[in-house]
Amino acid sequence: MLSRAARPALRAAAAAPSRAAAAGPSTAATYATLREIETRLKSIRNIEKITNTMKVVASTKLTRATRSMNDSRKYGEASNEVFKSAETAAAEAEEKKSLVIVCSSDKGLCGGIHSGLSRTIRRMYAEQPAFDLVIIGEKCKAQLQRTNGKEIQLTFAGVGKDIPTFADAQAIADQIVLLPTEYTDVKILYNKFINATSYEPTFIEAFSEEAIAQSPNISAFEVEDESLGNLREYSLANSIYWALAEGHACEQSARRNAMENASKNAGEMIGKYQILYNRTRQAVITGELVEIITGAIASEEM
Amino acid sequence: MQLKRSILAKIQSAIINNASLRPFNPHPSAKMTAAWKAAGLTYNRYLAVAARAIRRSLKEDKRIVAERRAVSELRFAVWKNGKPGETKDLAAANAAAMAESASS
């Protein structure tokens, strides 16, 4: 909503100084630009207020999001520990059928973190054989349905309002398990939180039941074959939860940065316009004075 | 309070008595498919139900905090040949799918 409202104003603002300079000499035009500058100044002030508020909101959400990210990371790592000890590797089947789960969210205004994910997917399509997609979040759905609409199997919406819950992850994992196709390997693409300003699209490997059963060290765990399916479902939910929580933290932090930059730019623009406004106002006053004085002198001489 | 205690007792006895409720039991006394599996639930669904039961048996103040973690407002759509299908509520659809797999 904001981005659409903000862009014409930005463009108009960029075009404004040249127009003001061109319209300088004529007094009638100066009056108009003065009012124009004033309205523009007002709208930029409003935008700055909005972006500033969004920044504050994102900052508060970020602390909670980071905490949940750290917790969920432990979940994910603990669940992957089993596979590490079992030395599980992706199953080497002749007919590979891969599935990639993309974890984005519904909301924008957070820089390029969603398009980073989409770009990674498109690059993978260029390099690798075709794979199917499950997309979580409206943003990546909108970006990928134009180029990779045929490969999309499932899309989920409604994430990103709040910190993702494990119930969300479980429900998503269930729906993925219910997909008719049997996938030999499943990957989860998410934004890895490196520090407050950099994120990296990263994959988490989620193994298929066969891959778990074939892993060389699985005999170290005394589990029944039938519970391997359960393990797979549960670890898929764990990994999705991890990816969602970390993606959420990245999004909040990216939004905070984006809004901070937007406020800074708006502040710069306000300064520039304030100066322009004052100068134009002075020019108008000087012009009027000159007119009055010349008028007075002219009438004196008569 | 009385009711909650009875629920907790029920859960406990269910966990203790029912071997099939222990999915990772390495030495099962009886080899049979778990009751929840026979009912068409996935393991995740089974966990969600168990979690819900425990959340509901918590004390009032803690329960409200815990129940907030259970809300899921996800919607989803199944895609066929590059076209999105109808958008549905995820929780309801999951329940329906499991009810179906139970009857089959």
TrEMBL record, chain A:
Gene3D superfamilies tied to this protein: 3.40.1380.10, ATP synthase, gamma subunit, helix hairpin domain
Transport keyword on record: yes
Domain of life: Eukaryota
Subcellular location field: Membrane
One Pfam family of this chain: ATP-synt
InterPro entries for this protein: ATP_synth_F1_ATPase_gsu, ATP_synth_F1_gsu, ATP_synth_F1_gsu_CS
Keyword hit for Nucleus: no
Record's bilayer topology term: Peripheral membrane protein
Membrane-spanning ranges: none
Keywords, in A-Z order: ATP synthesis, CF(1), Hydrogen ion transport, Ion transport, Membrane, Transport
Main localization category: membrane
Summary of subunit composition and partner proteins: F-type ATPases have 2 components, CF(1) - the catalytic core - and CF(0) - the membrane proton channel. CF(1) and CF(0) have multiple subunits.
PANTHER family in the cross-refs: ATP SYNTHASE GAMMA CHAIN, ATP SYNTHASE SUBUNIT GAMMA, MITOCHONDRIAL
Protein family membership: Belongs to the ATPase gamma chain family.
Name under which the protein is recorded: ATP synthase subunit gamma
Species in which this protein is naturally found: Trichoderma ghanense
Classification lineage: Eukaryota, Fungi, Dikarya, Ascomycota, Pezizomycotina
TrEMBL record, chain B:
A matching Pfam family: ATP-synt_Eps
Origin: domain of life: Eukaryota
PANTHER family: ATP SYNTHASE EPSILON CHAIN, MITOCHONDRIAL (PTHR12448), ATP SYNTHASE SUBUNIT EPSILON, MITOCHONDRIAL (PTHR12448:SF0)
Family of this protein: Belongs to the eukaryotic ATPase epsilon family.
Protein name per the record: Mitochondrial ATP synthase epsilon chain domain-containing protein
Organism: Trichoderma ghanense
Taxonomic lineage from the root: Eukaryota, Fungi, Dikarya, Ascomycota, Pezizomycotina
